Amino acid sequence: MYPDEIKKELASIISMVKVKIEIEKGFGIDTVTFTNTKVSDAIHQISPNSFTEIKSTETPVVAKSIGIQAFMNTKETKIKLLEELRHEMLVCHKCPLSKTRTNLVFGVGNSMADLMFIGEAPGRDEDLQGEPFVGRAGQLLTKIIEAIDMKRSDVYIANVLKCRPPGNRNPLPEEIIICIPYLIKQIEIIQPKVLCALGAFAAQALLNTKAPVGTLRGRFHDYKGVPMMVTFHPAYLLRNPNDKAKVWDDMKKVRDFLKNEFT
Ligand code: SF4
């Protein structure tokens, strides 16, 4: 190969490996295994300060990264990882909802958010606009966010399902099982300090329970070490406005938790 072609190939290998390391590190994996000695040699050549303990042998090579956690925490990295994930999801046809969606609804908001809301699935407006919580329920969610002295742009918002169930029917268990790994990846990239599950589907899917939202709401649960408040879905509140006070109580707990985190 000519030197330019070699350079190009090495650059593409490095970029591939870096993204793999970022994602795996973000998902709690401390070490990354390379089976290709050419790859580890290439990393060592191009970015010698980025890695330690890289050995080029015939057996699988383990490279422990240094400074990757700090790298993972930068806004640019999170945006990049979310973008990678979005591109992966845009071509997702793992379940039949891909055939009926207008747009895939990835998620929206601040990649450095301390607070992340998780809803159920896109509705008609969300499907048309490709953004979660933009209809009437979305407007109510915006008010809920503002009620705890935050802006919509401060938080991150995503759904369990990324494509609209036809006619706004409830998500099917098999659709949730197939789609939820995407949400889990989003949470792992964003690393929020608090999660807020809106409604039964988000709460039950993340907590792996069948308990009704009425018994789950109002207190923090543990989702892989992240406190998760459960409250009613804004769409439910539109139908049952008398329960707004309960949601306000739940959100005050979220607000106080975040306040205590920073004082
Ligand atoms: S709902 Fe999820 S799993 Fe199904 S097609 Fe959409 S992104 Fe893929």
Automatic annotation (TrEMBL):
GO biological process: DNA repair
One Pfam short name: UDG
Gene3D superfamilies: Uracil-DNA glycosylase-like domain
InterPro entries in UniProt: UDG_Type-4/5, Ura-DNA_glyco_family4, Uracil-DNA_glycosylase-like, Uracil-DNA_glycosylase-like_sf
Domain of life (superkingdom): Bacteria
SMART domains: UDG, UreE_C
Keyword Disulfide bond listed: no
Residue span, Uracil-DNA glycosylase-like domain: 106-252
Catalytic activity: Hydrolyzes single-stranded DNA or mismatched double-stranded DNA and polynucleotides, releasing free uracil
Keywords recorded for this protein, A-Z: 4Fe-4S, DNA damage, DNA repair, Hydrolase, Iron, Iron-sulfur, Metal-binding
GO MF term list: 4 iron, 4 sulfur cluster binding; metal ion binding; uracil DNA N-glycosylase activity
Its EC number(s): 3.2.2.27
NCBIfam families reported in the protein's UniProt record: UDG_fam4
Family affiliation: Belongs to the uracil-DNA glycosylase (UDG) superfamily. Type 4 (UDGa) family.
Entry protein name: Type-4 uracil-DNA glycosylase
Organism from which the protein derives: Candidatus Jettenia caeni
Organism phylogeny: Bacteria, Pseudomonadati, Planctomycetota, Candidatus Brocadiia, Candidatus Brocadiales
